[in-house]
Write a sequence for this structure.
């Protein structure tokens, strides 16, 4: 870091210095989050993974393909995310000041990019070590095998970090690389039975496979080192306008998140349509409102094709996860169901724009000639129908064990989305501090209130993943979501 | 058509709208004038059903104000601020969709939308998405959405916002035409040219205090 850069960052840091109290509160909130959310999830995952049946499934040859597909998917996602929010960003004014100076970008963004890649590598090593330790604990592999998991996880994570930067520095090449990786992943998944042996050395699972795959690890290490060596050059290639735009958008997201306005935060990254402007979206009149609204929603979704494809892929992945959940039982099935619901939540976003818009309008002056309730219901038709069809088709092809869940879960997720869209301002009592012997629970309650809809969707997924055993819990969540939806609709202003 | 009798809006000890009485018949246009904070927007929000008066009565078309009521929704069209737009619809889609939800006959809806778009000079922007519009163009789109639906009463809060003189003249002419066709128009405005072009009467809230 040059003296000038150090001085500039110093000025910025001093202006935004956190007090000791702020730091303590942040630490307290993080510890609470880890204890309340992280620990139970990790424990459930550990219990599920250390079951003999699960451990055996993870060590069979087919698991190598799954791991390879997941790794390719992670790299592809990193490349795509970099196009929207890469590691080289700074607060908008600081970014402007530094970018308009003569300081080289490899110097300006070295620290923040290094941090980003290190975090990605640490995530990789943590996840891989967790998986390796779970498999070793079940006795399927020797304890020493965990080292292999850790090394490969580290390299895969570091490469994901480099891909993240590549997506920001070279968006077109990043997109092409992501598309290629996804294509290879799909090809591998489609020909899993024939490619399992060939893929095994390139995945973390090779360590426990028939071949140790040390050579593959060396290849992975060399690629990762080459990638890390290219970081300064990639930083120099980053476009100033891209960094400025990404920094401004990220700043807005942080501001929205701090005020718990997660809708506005995610809206910042929603693709804006630029194609399909010549297509008609409105057909017919009020005499056929369902057709009118359905066609409007379909055309609207098609106008952001990449977003629509990403949504459908996410819903398809939800179907796949439900299929896998149908093959298991207990904690992993619940976790997989929760994951399926999260994927459905993400996947229905691109096809719920009409629903979201009408929810906004219903809180405003009357605009449409159709009454709010039916209009909301009509706008729920497209996302619900598409999600149900895709999810149930995937589950049916996979054996159809959780077919009822594949039909019911998307309905609940879309209902939760509608409830989320109708959310008004936070109730006043949530804004009032309530000190107690164990601290102030209000910040946590405010977060839970802001995230209640996706959380209930995930809970519904956890219940749905366990099949018949979870029907009672599923219906309870359905009742809560329905009640919340009705209350929010009645109280919209 | 509009009967406002002794209406006051007060929050705690703060008076947002001083005691106001005004009656308007069909085809009349009222310009509500006053300094910032005089209560113009509050009066319009009361008329649109977005704010309940502390005291006094308001009736529109002989019925109390209730924006959940279907008849009221059909009778009163209001523009009180930025209209939530759909990011995935073009300008033409927006106006056509609003018209389509109010008219059973698609041909009538299509013709109404086309007329409004032409009258406001939005013909050249039909295929733009909302994020591709300037702030003045967004104001015109908001006005088009309000005008694309049938209404006996138009309630407009500063429709002149962000419009250049030429566009303001266009908007004034369109609103005057609606007035002449029998629509009651209530406009809060800081624009003397618009008030002069449109209003039969002026309610000066500065003098009500």
């Amino acid at each position: 870091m040059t003296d000038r850069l150090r001085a500039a960052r110093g000025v910025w840091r001093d202006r935004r210095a956190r007090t000791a109290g702020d730091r303590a509160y942040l630490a307290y909130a993080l510890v609470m989050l880890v204890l309340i959310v992280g620990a139970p999830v990790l424990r459930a995952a550990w219990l599920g993974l250390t079951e003999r049946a699960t451990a055996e499934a993870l060590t069979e040859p087919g698991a190598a393909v799954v791991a390879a597909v997941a790794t390719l998917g992670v790299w592809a996602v990193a490349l795509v995310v970099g196009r929207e929010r890469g590691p080289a960003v700074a607060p908008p004014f600081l970014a402007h000041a530094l970018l308009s100076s003569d300081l080289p970008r490899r110097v300006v963004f070295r620290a923040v990019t290094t941090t980003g890649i290190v975090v990605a590598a640490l995530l990789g090593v943590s996840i891989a070590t967790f998986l390796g330790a779970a498999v070793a604990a079940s006795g399927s592999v020797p304890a020493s095998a965990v080292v292999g998991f850790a090394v490969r996880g580290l390299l895969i994570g570091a490469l994901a970090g480099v891909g993240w930067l590549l997506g920001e520095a070279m968006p077109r090449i990043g997109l092409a690389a992501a598309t290629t990786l996804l294509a290879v992943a799909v090809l591998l998944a489609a020909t899993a039975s024939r490619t399992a042996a060939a893929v095994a050395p390139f995945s973390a699972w090779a360590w426990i496979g028939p071949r140790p795959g040390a050579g593959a690890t060396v290849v992975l290490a060399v690629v990762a080192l080459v990638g890390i060596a290219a970081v300064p050059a990639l930083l120099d290639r980053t476009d100033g306008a891209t960094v400025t735009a990404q920094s401004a958008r990220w700043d807005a997201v942080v501001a929205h998140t701090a005020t718990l306005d997660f809708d506005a935060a995610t809206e910042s990254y929603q693709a804006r349509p630029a194609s399909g402007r010549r297509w008609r979206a409105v057909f017919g009149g009020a005499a056929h409102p369902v057709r009118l609204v359905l066609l409007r929603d379909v055309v609207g979704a098609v106008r952001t094709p990449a977003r629509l494809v990403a949504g459908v892929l996410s819903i398809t992945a939800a179907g796949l996860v439900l299929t896998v959940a149908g093959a298991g039982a207990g904690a992993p099935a619940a976790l997989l169901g929760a994951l399926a619901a999260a994927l459905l939540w993400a996947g229905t976003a691109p096809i719920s724009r009409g629903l979201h818009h009408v929810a906004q309008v219903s809180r405003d002056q009357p605009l449409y000639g159709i009454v709010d309730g039916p209009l909301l219901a009509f706008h729920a038709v497209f996302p619900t129908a598409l999600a149900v069809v895709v999810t149930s088709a995937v589950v049916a092809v996979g054996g159809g064990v959780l077919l009822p869940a594949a039909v019911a879960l998307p309905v609940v997720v879309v209902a939760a989305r509608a409830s989320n869209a109708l959310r008004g301002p936070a109730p006043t009592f949530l804004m009032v501090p309530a000190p107690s012997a164990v601290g102030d629970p209000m910040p946590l309650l405010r977060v839970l209130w802001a995230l209640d809809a996706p959380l209930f969707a995930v809970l519904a997924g956890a219940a749905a993943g366990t099949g018949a055993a979870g029907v009672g819990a599923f219906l309870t969540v359905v009742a809560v979501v329905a009640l919340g939806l009705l209350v929010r609709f009645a109280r919209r202003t | 058509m509009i009967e406002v009798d002794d209406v006051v809006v007060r929050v705690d000890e703060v008076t947002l709208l001083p005691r106001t009485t005004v009656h308007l018949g069909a085809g009349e246009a009222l310009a509500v004038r006053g300094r910032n904070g005089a209560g113009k927007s509050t009066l319009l929000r009361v008329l649109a059903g977005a704010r309940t008066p502390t005291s006094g009565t308001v009736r529109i078309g002989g019925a109390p104000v209730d924006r959940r009521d279907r008849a009221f929704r059909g009778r009163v069209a209001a523009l009180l601020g930025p209209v939530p737009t759909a990011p995935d619809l073009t300008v033409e889609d927006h106006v056509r969709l609003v018209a389509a939800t109010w008219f059973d006959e698609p041909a009538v809806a299509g013709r109404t939308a086309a007329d409004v778009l032409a009258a406001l000079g939005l013909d050249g922007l039909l295929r733009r998405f909302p994020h591709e519009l300037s702030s003045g163009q967004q104001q015109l789109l908001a006005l088009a959405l309000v005008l694309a639906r049938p209404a006996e009463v138009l309630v407009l809060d500063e429709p002149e916002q962000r419009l250049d003189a030429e566009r303001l003249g266009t908007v004034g002419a369109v609103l005057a035409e609606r007035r002449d066709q029998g629509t009651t128009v209530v406009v809060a405005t800081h624009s003397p040219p618009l008030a002069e072009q449109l209003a039969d009467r002026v309610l000066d809230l500065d003098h009500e205090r």
Chain B has seven helices and nine strands. The interface with chain A takes residues 48, 50, 67, 70, 73-74, 76-80, 83-90, 93, 96-98, 100-106, 108-109, 127-129, 131, 145, 149 of chain B (CB under 8 Å). Residues 156 and 187 of chain B are 5 Å apart (CA to CA). Chain B has one domain: 2-208.
